[in-house]
Amino acid sequence: MQSIAEIPFIAGHVALDFVNTAEERGHPDAGDVLRTPADLRMWGQRYGLLSRSASSDDEGAELRRAINVRELLYALLLARVLDHRPTRTDLDRLAALVPPAYNDARLETDTDGHLTWSWNSSQLATVRHVALTAAVDLLARTPPARLKQCPGEHCGWFFLDTTKRGNRRWCSMSECGQDAKTARRRALSKPQRPSPRRPAA
After folding, report:
1. pTM score, two decimals?
2. What is the DSSP code string of 6-24?
């Protein structure tokens, strides 16, 4: 797993990239780049959500809230990818978390005059607020076939497939895609053991 300063943003969506700060949950080789409040701050800064001075009254508590949100979004996204209905508990948790996120936002207009929500870049909570609200919009509007999970070994990252044919398979061809190609080449290059001959009748 890359460090917080190196982890790539390959998902094509802020909520997915936020969920992708952990990979291969439950596996002995699982990785998580959000270990400290400083990690959360740097992720938000790299994504353009936070200023350099972003903080929280209790940064440890905010990190825990952010990770709880991330894991809830993971469960909801996984249910969508697997074509399962989300649990009532997860939906109720999401419903309770979204209104406070919008309460912390301001409604503004972009350069084209479109309405948009904006959060305070000096507040560490902005990361989870943006991830939450963006995830709701994604789950409400995105065709299920366009939301995918990488099958790479020890990966499991989510991404949006925006290819014309909808045939993107890997989170990154230079990483998981290349690893899969290398594994196939190795398998094909292994000498085949001859089958034992049957004794003549």
Report:
1. 0.85
2. T----SSSHHHHHHTTEES
